[in-house]
Amino acid sequence: MRNRIAAANWKMNLTLDQACALAGTLVETLKSIDLGGKQVILATPYLYLSTVADIIKSNKNIFVAAQDCSEHLSGAYTGEVSATMLYSAGITHVIIGHSERRTYHQEKDEALKTKVENALTNNLKVIFCCGEQLSHREQMKHFNLIEGQLWHGLFHLDETQIINCAIAYEPVWAIGTGVTASPAQAAEMHSFIRKLLIEKYGESTANEISILYGGSCNEKNAAELFSNTDIDGGLIGGASLKADSFIKIIQSL
Ligand code: PGA
Predict the structure, then answer these.
(1) How far apart are CA 202 and CA 160, in angstroms?
(2) Helical spans, DSSP H, in 122-182
(3) Assuming Cys at both sites, which of 116, 148, 186, 245 could form a disulfide with 181, CB separation 3.0 to 4.6 Å?
(4) Using H for helix, E for strand and C for coil, what is the string for 205-229?
């Protein structure tokens, strides 16, 4: 059965001290909460990965993730971090294709496809992001857009590979804006993504894959979003930077 996941995307926020304090509070608080099989993933800046991994290691339900990895595995790529390096440092998960990477770093489907392959070859689990701009939705092109992002960046994988991936649907107009997709809009897109997975991989494999919602998801709207059968949790930005709100989101899983 697929996992229910609350993934925190800290982006380029928090000092090292603040990051350690937040991770420490989460570990301490989650000691008294039975997570069952639910997973908590903390996507930290590269610089903090090993330190945060050390802090969370006593709880087998908490993992750390990188927010990206290089398209290359090694070599003269100043400033880049490869999937091989992440794995060698004990990191287990990586986010690939976040809209901020697609927008500010011009990451295209072909590069994302390579990143996904590099991550899986290095035993990392992938959270693959997709999402439409508001203009796509206004022109009723959002389903086509998401289908294209999945086919070009992810659906080259075979069944044994795709089960090591989760998909995060993050409408770009909802990220960091305070405007959340309505539960009906999110549910509609999540069931569309599930249908695409079924068509490509068959029902049993499709049902193993977690589909997360992201975009102004917070402690107030998480429970209603997560109550939908095809919404298996969330990728949380702003509301993951404070222990109180993120813990409430985890409890809504
Ligand atoms: P947000 O970010 O929750 O702040 O909207 C989500 C994300 O970008 O992953």
Answers:
(1) 12
(2) 134-138, 142-153, 159-162
(3) 186
(4) HHCCCCEEEECCCCCCCHHHHHCCC
**Contacting residues for 89 by C-beta, under 8 A, at least 6 apart:** 49, 50, 53
Nearest Cα residue to atom 1 of ligand 1: 237
- Tens-digit pLDDT profile for residues 31-47: 999 898 899 999 999 99
CA–CA distance, 37 with 88 (Å, rounded to integer): 26
* Domain chopping of the chain, boundaries: 5-251
Q: What is the pLDDT of residue 180?
A: 87
Q: What is the CATH number of domain 5-251?
A: 3.20.20.70
Model pTM score: 0.97
Ligand 1 binding residues, C-beta < 6 A = 9, 170, 175-176, 214-217, 235-239
Residue 180 CA to ligand 1 centre (angstroms): 10
Q: Give the type of residue at 222.
A: A
Q: From the CA of 212, how far away is ligand 1's center (Å)?
A: 12
Ligand 1 atom index nearest CA of 9: 9
